[in-house]
Amino acid sequence: MSTLRFRVEKLIRDKLPQIMRDQGLAVFEHRLDEDAFITALKAKLLEETREAQAAGDAAELTDELADLSEVMLALAAAHGVTLDDIEARRLAKHAERGGFEGRIYNAAVEVETGLPAADYYLARPTQYPQVE
């Protein structure tokens, strides 16, 4: 019988190596230092966001949002930020800018050159491509 090896290269939950070994897999893991951990958490945040975006139903979305929450809390803890800190900031932003209850979608903006907002959008061409 031949052996197959697959590159994974991502942060995984703490109990997964043993779960995988119990299934007969060989797992090649190591512990990350602080900087590498922060980088891996940010990559994991994007991975989980893509999975939540692709979720097909409410149950799958719930699972993916739970994963997102786990990664978010780990990233916050790595920076000394608590769930209470996040919630306080969320409430402050909601009071200042509102939430998403209105389902408002912004298709484009126009701004006169020279205004600070123009500089903001021009500095982010990938995020806000200029249209004619």
Write the layout of secondary structure elements.
Elements: H1 16-22, H2 34-54, H3 58-78, H4 83-97, H5 116-122
Helix pairs in contact: 2-3
Query: In whole angstroms, how far apart are the ends?
Result: 61 Å
Radius of gyration, taken over Cα atoms and rounded to an integer in Å:
21 Å
Q: β content, as a range?
A: under 5%
Which structural class best describes the helix and strand composition? Answer: mainly alpha
Question: Could you tell me the number of beta strands?
Answer: 0
Mean pLDDT: 96
Write the element-wise H/E pattern from the N-terminal end onward: HHHHH
Tally of individual helices: 5
Shape: elongated
Sum this structure up briefly.
By secondary structure, this protein is mostly helical.
Structural write-up:
- This protein has five helices and no strands.
- It has helices spanning 16-22, 34-54, 58-78, 83-97, 116-122.
- Helix 2 (34-54) packs antiparallel against helix 3 (58-78).
- Helix content is 54%, strand content 0%.
- The chain is an all-alpha fold and 132 residues long.
- The mean pLDDT is 96.
- The longest helix has 21 residues, at 34-54.
Task: Sum up the structure in keywords.
mainly alpha, single chain, 5 helices, elongated
